[in-house]
Amino acid sequence: MIEFETNPSPSFNLDVKSPLHNAFERKAIVLDLREGAIIFHPDQKQDSLYFVKSGVLRSLVNRGDTELTRWFYSAGDLAFSALCFLHGAPSDICLEAACPSVIMQIYREDYNALCNDFPEFKKIVNDLQTAFLSRYSLHNDSVKMLSRIERYRKFLAEFPTVNHRVKVMHLASFLGMSPDTLSRIRRQFKDESSKNNPTAPSNCG
Fold first, then answer.
1. Which of 166, 168, 186, 189 is deepest in the core (most CB within 10 A)?
2. InterPro entries in the record, alphabetically (predicted)?
């Protein structure tokens, strides 16, 4: 079996007593999103960074009549279009709330001001961006090299809070399989869990 190393990812979690936290809170715009709300459309130039406080954001692209899920961002993650924010090019992604979510939005000028006042903030953001690009590359490799069930197992390890908070069709697209195949794999995992721990309460997500 091919194994992909899973490293702990950095998380956006500022010390609430720090001056940086207070400055960030003053500049951030709180977005309280319902499921399906879109905060970023294709062909826009991204002028903000989005920090997920709770819930799940989904990045997606449309290829003709096909919608593809590229990534899921959960609490502590930074959601952004690398092509857009880092290089100023129009993005091809859409950012959508996959479930009710709370997002902290920081405009580019406020991001630059925070970086000037707090050099550690720039390092935090750079670490989050680097971690995402690394995870994204590894995910693309895993879709090509791992079996479907191995992909799902890897997903459970790396996205522990996402599984039952997003639609099956969106998760199946992310994992490179059909919704029916994903549902079958989920049942298999549930059956295995029940056999291994018959006294555990049922978790219907």
1. 166
2. cNMP-bd_dom (IPR000595), cNMP-bd_dom_sf (IPR018490), RmlC-like_jellyroll (IPR014710)
Helices 108-117 and 119-145: crossing angle, nearest 10°? 120
Q: E-strand spans in 19-55?
A: 29-33, 38-40, 48-54
Q: What is the distance between the alpha carbons of residues 2 and 188, in angstroms, rounded to a whole number?
A: 21
**Contact present, 183 and 152 (Cβ < 8 Å):** no
Task: List pLDDT tens digits, range 123-149.
Answer: 999 999 888 889 999 999 999 999 999
Q: Looking at beta carbons, which pairs linking 110-116 to residues 24 or more positions away fall under 8 Å?
A: 110/27, 110/28, 111/49, 113/27, 114/20, 114/23, 114/24, 114/27
